[in-house]
Records
---
Amino acid sequence: MRLSRSLVPTLKETPAEAQIASHRLMLRAGLVRQTSAGIYAWLPAGWRVLQNIARIVREEQDAAGAQEMLMPTIQPADLWRQSGRYDAYGPEMLRIRDRHDREMLYGPTNEEMITDIFRQSVKSYRELPQNLYHIQWKFRDEVRPRFGVMRGREFLMKDAYSFDLDYEGAVISYRKMMLAYMRTFQRLGLKAIPMVADTGPIGGNLSHEFIILAPTGESQVYYDAAFEQIDPASGEFSFDSNADLARCYERLTTPYAATDEKHDPVAWEGVPDRREGRGIEVGHIFYFGTKYSEPMGLAIAGPDGKPLVPHMGSYGIGVSRLVGAIIEASHDDAGIKWPDSVAPWKAALLNLKQGDAACDAICTDIYRRLGNDLLYDDREDRAGVKFADADLMGHPWHIVVGPRGAANGKVELKRRATGERTEVSVADALARIA
RNA sequence: CGGGGCGUAGCUCAGCCUGGUAGAGCACAGCGUUUGGGACGCUGGGGCCGGAGGUUCGAAUCCUCUCGCCCCGACCA
């Protein structure tokens, strides 16, 4: 994309409403604009990041055998009456009436809806297990939205729902998701730690939160340094092997890890290499058995012909929250440092001297080759402005084309994460980035 | 939902206490000089001072109500 033709409104100064780094940088880098408290418009650069995160989440869900679908944002109140949650959920749920005065709501989650869909079509134990997910906007009317997209009212979430014949099957589904989550977060450039968690209003009795470490995290966390060695994406574990899943689960849940609410000072004393810090919750998985299938009348024919009530679990990832979380974990004073996997563009191309024949020729050439993967800063601005904006926006690579090097076909390649700069030929620059 | 604070130009903010024709810096447009880390000069455009009532000859400024937003706490992907 050409920056001169793009809506990427970077700000030199920090808007007054932003307190924490990620919120500040998301506004300054032109990723989002707030439209109401806790509700954001995603501008082109931010939307690209959001889609990149969603893509990785999707790939790992698919790899774990989950099926993607899409459920609506607006749901009928009736469904929630069947589970008993319509009254239980409280003012956090945005309730709406349509023109016929029917009670509707903007979904904060989809257990009821998926259970309803599932019970309409699935009749036999032969069709289980299944895991269905979607990536959809949710709304929770938080009393106090804050921290930008990290605690918004409207947010994009991946939520998956598993259906199994019994507890043993549900545990396997649960472990698959745990592995998929670890791989997902690793691909996003994050170190995530599964911690024993409260189940909250979703309910159930087996639950882990996925916490990433960041100094500005919302909760105090305690964990064994052993987690720093775990590499879930090594390929060591297969989704198809129950033995692998069991080993993976054990490795991920044996060392001590807990948030403030679940912290056990006595057990903590016995941890060999203790670490404390702040954490951001980016995912949450639950097993809740028949909490929804039972009251909502989901029953299928079992092998003996008798009705069988499936055991369920649900698995959430805060996709929009992750944008903020990644920035919290990866930035410096100058701006964002995007991991390659989620960056809005692979690289920025800085033409330091618009109108210089050599600079223009090199830039045109590079732009023709990389096109949409590249943000071409072709603005009529001074070099300093372009450097500052490129650092702020956090592109993984900066290709700097100035009159000094351009004369003999050289460009400067800068790695944003490390600050390392090298002077290379155009061909070498393209090869490094590819 | 309790406590605190703020709404003045696209952004950061001054002016309000003590009422008298709306300000600065940045950004934007034009011209000139600059040109490898957020340049300089000149000129120019841009505001129903969040909204509604009230007090007053006169309100950004004082009073009442209201809406919005932010922060701390209690609660959550």
Note: Chain A has 13 helices and 23 strands.
---
Amino acid sequence: MTPTNRISWKDVRDEIHEAILTGRYGPGDRLPRDADIAVQLNCARSTVQRAMQDLTDSGLVERRRKGGTRVRPDPVTRATFDIPVTRREIEQKGGRYGYQLIHSAEKDAPRGVLAACEISSPCRMQQIEALHLSDGQPYILEDRWVSFETVPEIRDLDLTRQSANEWLVTNKPYSRCDLRFYAISADDRTAELLNTVPGAALFVIERTTWLDAAPITTVKAITTPGYHLLTTI
Amino acid sequence: MTPTNRISWKDVRDEIHEAILTGRYGPGDRLPRDADIAVQLNCARSTVQRAMQDLTDSGLVERRRKGGTRVRPDPVTRATFDIPVTRREIEQKGGRYGYQLIHSAEKDAPRGVLAACEISSPCRMQQIEALHLSDGQPYILEDRWVSFETVPEIRDLDLTRQSANEWLVTNKPYSRCDLRFYAISADDRTAELLNTVPGAALFVIERTTWLDAAPITTVKAITTPGYHLLTTI
DNA sequence: TGACAAAATAAGTAGCTACATAATATCGTT
DNA sequence: AACGATATTATGTAGCTACTTATTTTGTCA
């Protein structure tokens, strides 16, 4: 008998979450200590600990040694996004993926790129412009700069067949990644490449990756009008 | 003697991460089972478990019972964003916060709002338009719809002094939150309110919150030109 | 009163055991 | 060979103990 009357850490988490939702604990309030909650809910402290860790990760509570656990006084909305390889993103939406290299050349990295990579001295990098297509229509225009130092192979890669996006992601794992989201107005050239009108509002995903302190690549992914980025549920 | 030669789960995580970075395990490869790693690194299986959980959360590996652990074959960039209350966001950037109610009235919720709230039948809601200012300059224009059913108090609130953003966040915790990011072109009215030119590209953060199945509010936060959203490090 | 040292406290971490659960692998039967 | 029942396996979870660490509180002395 006794059909799993054990309580799971998710139960504990939901219980506490519920108590915050119903206002039993408001922003800034201190929660009972783990050990007391454990006794009250008849479970082990480690179970409460796991539940609390989850609530901390989701930004709902703050924990400090000796200070105890309290509901965050300045609630934040914490959201997680998954940004897949562009090919997969298009295929998952049911589109037929297409790829087109526009341009690839060695150049002096401009100021903005150096800043994104957090390097101060001038530097030559490989600039790659490419278009990702869904069902033949432009989907994302990527403007990428790749560091020779971290990715020497980039000189000899055939980027007409495989995108740098895909090659890098499978061959150059990173230890740090910064993302920036913003909007730009399409200039004439961008508009033409993306098959839209100059001045159109475009959503931009900018990403820089590093291996330890060394920058790998920085890329500006300019999306077509109507592009929405959603939280992963 | 023996000055903490115990190995931490973060050490284990970094060790495995390192092994993936250096290519010892590539996308799709299967890692040794937890127990073996534990023996190899001379720690308990629970320590390896914790490390693996962290690597799973960051999207680097996949774990399946009996199937074992493998490096994700389709690597994703997983990013976390914190979106604070607008007042705090402005203050943290060193700006002086200002707030201005533009308009508040009961209305039939339009299609888009109903869709965002995932409700099918027509519904009356409170529409609130307000402007958040930084150092007297427009910063974010918010177009908000609040459900009477979940938030009956909204009828009697004085929104000329306190923003709905702030009131809701401290008084109506949510159990679910969806976010959408995209870009729009400023129409004449938006441009005037945000003190910019019609056609300017604006970054939009749209957010809908629920308490269980019941929608609380959906809000379109239209930012001023130049707004960037960064990952939290 | 103020400053500093010592004690107390609550979370964090590591280790162990035991059992649950979900996949997969195996084997026997038709 | 195809199928289904069964065994095996690797991760998931819960409980316990012991110890560590950061932080606050208390206490003592100048």
Note: The CA atoms of residues 10 and 51 of chain B lie 6 Å apart.
---
Amino acid sequence: MTSLPSILGGLDPTSDRAVFRQIADQLREAIDRGRFKEGDKLPSEAELVEHYGVSRMTVRNSFSILQGEGLVHAEHGKGVFVRPRPPVRRLASDRFARRHREQGKSAFIVEADAASSQPKVDSLEVKEEKASQDISNRLGDSVRRVLARRRRYLLDGRPVEFATSYLPLDIARGTQIAEPNPGPGGIYARLEELGHQLDHFEEEIRARMPSPSEVKTLQLAAGVPVIHLIRTAFDTAGRAVEVCDTVMAADAYVLSYQLPAT
Amino acid sequence: MTSLPSILGGLDPTSDRAVFRQIADQLREAIDRGRFKEGDKLPSEAELVEHYGVSRMTVRNSFSILQGEGLVHAEHGKGVFVRPRPPVRRLASDRFARRHREQGKSAFIVEADAASSQPKVDSLEVKEEKASQDISNRLGDSVRRVLARRRRYLLDGRPVEFATSYLPLDIARGTQIAEPNPGPGGIYARLEELGHQLDHFEEEIRARMPSPSEVKTLQLAAGVPVIHLIRTAFDTAGRAVEVCDTVMAADAYVLSYQLPAT
DNA sequence: CAGTGGTCTAGACCACCGG
DNA sequence: CGGTGGTCTAGACCACTGA
């Protein structure tokens, strides 16, 4: 163990920068420089209080900055640790290609296979409900009620994504799409069997901080944003046949797309 | 002005939930219900101290939660306000279509026009430099040095995006691409004139909390993540001719993509 | 048990804003 | 100037962890 003074400098009393920011800066720099590596424990609050000669709240303020940046996380009774970067799932632009469906794989499984992690789905709920204004706009204004399929995806035991699919009742009611298990290839395979040959998808992407309920559902650490993705599936007749609203833990994903140059 | 007790409830001393979380919950709910609207001033710390009968630090802790969620922002000497949602730029999947280039418009201008806001570019820097390992990987391992074009984009005076384009020297050196102003249609138009007919782009998207320097450059409020986008442009020969590394204020953007179903 | 972080208090002084 | 948020102190008690 290297001594603290050799890793962290002193404070600059002449600086305009608040003391707790200076402390946060020094800790951040130490992390960036690799003096503290992923998973390492930072000095305890008491140690920093002594090293810098400040009060405990000042040290805690510093930690709170780093937590907000997603750099560290605190574990009650143990310490404050450099947050390890979790393995990310790369979503490729061909993830909805028909050849995958024809192999009986859903998009999530295809990706999980590629990342060779253990995929799981839970908290499945399938019910009919009233369409929100936004969903109605996307599925066509005549669509008032929809079939909603909610599920949460886990990778290696960690929840990474919460998604709800909305389908018009005239398409989905009474079909296997309305069953908890939609069968091989997922609901997209069923839609095609029902005569809705898929033509393309549109995806809208936003990023923002999670709501408290999203923090809970995805067990998000402090300083982890979510990616909010809204996908609409269109059949060859030009009809929107499904809208999928997905909230993903941003630290678990890299999305990838191809754009035409023409 | 409605009185505080009619908007905010009391505390539940029997609850396990920390007092400052309960206060944050009540404020959040009041905002969600529309009791406080965008731009509205929340009760001052002193008012909440009195209303709840807690110490000031407890109230400030509540505010700090809401700030972390991006719901409110504090203005020194004025108060704490519900953060207004800024206008967003929608990036369409056809934003690099050749027809736009042929009209002499760069992608940013095309989008800004659509949003009818005042676009601006500043802090332009064009220089040759050593390619980072990642850039080198993307442009082809033989590419060691690159032309880097850095610029910041503003919309209605607000910085929303900071981007760096990297191009292999054998393509860009001595051309108009190496000039501060690359001419009508931007560097993609120049690349095509130089014989690199563009075929497609690949975009990689991540979301995360900003670094301190990104906070500064983009003047980000607390609780605003960034979207990190890395785009690679390929010519019809299959060569990567440009990599563009972009960091965007997440609250200013909605990205939109089309995916094939085949 | 000792060490850790989590919560909370009751003050203090400061910097900024608007009238 | 009074009111606002920004910073900081010096304590207190609690809950959780691991030996």
Note: Chain B has two domains: 4-82, 89-255.
---
Amino acid sequence: MKKDSKQEIAYQFIRSRITEGIYVQGQRLVIDTLGKELNLSPIPIREAIRRLEAEGLVTIKAYSGAVVSFIDEKEYFEVLSTLAALEGYAVVTSISQVTIEQIGELHEINLQIKEALHQFNFNGYIKLNKEFHLCTIKYCTNKSLFNLIEQMWEKLDTIRRLKPMYFPTRAPEAISEHEKIISLLETKQPSFEIEQFIRKHHLAAIHEYNKNVTSS
Amino acid sequence: MKKDSKQEIAYQFIRSRITEGIYVQGQRLVIDTLGKELNLSPIPIREAIRRLEAEGLVTIKAYSGAVVSFIDEKEYFEVLSTLAALEGYAVVTSISQVTIEQIGELHEINLQIKEALHQFNFNGYIKLNKEFHLCTIKYCTNKSLFNLIEQMWEKLDTIRRLKPMYFPTRAPEAISEHEKIISLLETKQPSFEIEQFIRKHHLAAIHEYNKNVTSS
DNA sequence: ATATTTTAAATTATATATGATTTGATATAT
DNA sequence: ATATATCAAATCATATATAATTTAAAATAT
């Protein structure tokens, strides 16, 4: 049972405050204040903030201090657009590994997604939607690709918490599109068709957003 | 003219030592030694190493120290495979922005690539090849996507320096494939065709590598 | 001779103090 | 009243010292 170093404690604390939306974008992170709050000296705080800077969550201005990074709302859709390309690709490169078990699991998650929609459980919906998509690439053997996709899902989560804005879910359509995705996987349809469908599934949220923004 | 902080100096120093292959994978990075070498106290060294850890270049084991990260040779091809998907996508999403100037620039770079090959200038070839590919996505408006692709090219460069292994170039084929890419862009061929050609262009190196590895 | 334990050395992790820089408040000039 | 300069406060950045941990070497036991 290895005890976390102080630096690690500070990192986890600050990081979760950011990803949970408690620290808002633009908020100053004052090293002395954080040190007092956590009963640590400034050094482990500074190291933790350096790590968070490298992850893009925090922006450090030399000699001025650190703030929670500002997020341009475009970024959500840029990441989503990039994810659209990668996820489709990851799914088709692991299509030969698809199992009956995985198909069953996807069906199960999609049932839970539908239930979350019926219960007006937005957070549950978002969490399960991510699970569904990560399940589609479960057997992706390209570790770099898998990790990158995971990081992108995390990034989307973080932006949603940091940036109050409208995030389109298209829940009813998405749920039925999930069923289609499962079907495409189960029947091992041509790679192109699978890749394009998954890509369009994600890009549809961007179109939805643009439709709403231009009409208001 | 802003003077770099000591932390920044340490970061740049260590980072370039790694990316230039002077520090080899697995090499211990001893904080005191680096501090003496740079005439700095341990704190800015530690902060720099934290940043490098977050970039994956360095692996820190708590209380034991930092080493230059080990690279699994698979990673090169995993990153290249992921890049294949992303670059094709980035090119087709910015196809409408292609200019005569860009086409001319691509031709020019490819001429220089051919010259580097004739002069047995491996490093020049690698550098120009990267330039060529970054030029194909020059007008990509999705900043996240552009930055990600740039980072991946950097990653490939770093792995090549850190990991002594065979890296297939297929130089003559690659050069003529570049010409084909330029032609596809110039004539605004269908997105699918462009995307697939670029993807296959990159994946061909992986096939080449596998061919050579299984035959030896 | 080999295995285990103990000790010493090397290095990491962090506290505290101090120097450096930026920001904000106040005073002065126009 | 507004603009500029000066000063003070807040905070950052880092040096130095100390505590903590790991690793390697030496001593002891089998």
Note: The radius of gyration of chain A is 20 Å.
